[in-house]
Design a protein that fits this description.
Blueprint lengths: L1 H31 L4 H50 L1
């Protein structure tokens, strides 16, 4: 049950992050367009790059959690094998 909650929360946060990237880029460009298109484009690209790093951080949480579960499974299997051969 705990795994499902974590996966749902991370999936929601990833979806919300992508929405923030899309709408945030649009809003950022519109906010800074009175100061010039080149400045607005530069700030928008900077915003998108920072947002992508945040998305990558969320994705890293998912990947590391999956690694942890696989390592726990392997540990259990190795303990069973070790128990069989030490008897």
């Amino acid at each position: 049950m705990q795994k499902e909650k974590f996966d749902r929360i991370i999936s929601f946060l990833l979806g919300a992050s992508w929405a923030i990237v899309v709408f945030g880029a649009l809003i950022t460009f519109q906010l800074f367009s009175p100061f010039g298109v080149s400045l607005a484009l530069f700030i928008t690209i900077f915003f998108v790059v920072v947002a992508f790093f945040l998305i990558l951080a969320l994705d890293a949480f998912t990947i590391n959690r999956e690694k942890l579960y696989e390592a726990q499974k392997q540990t259990q299997l190795l303990e069973k094998i070790y128990a069989k051969h030490t008897k």
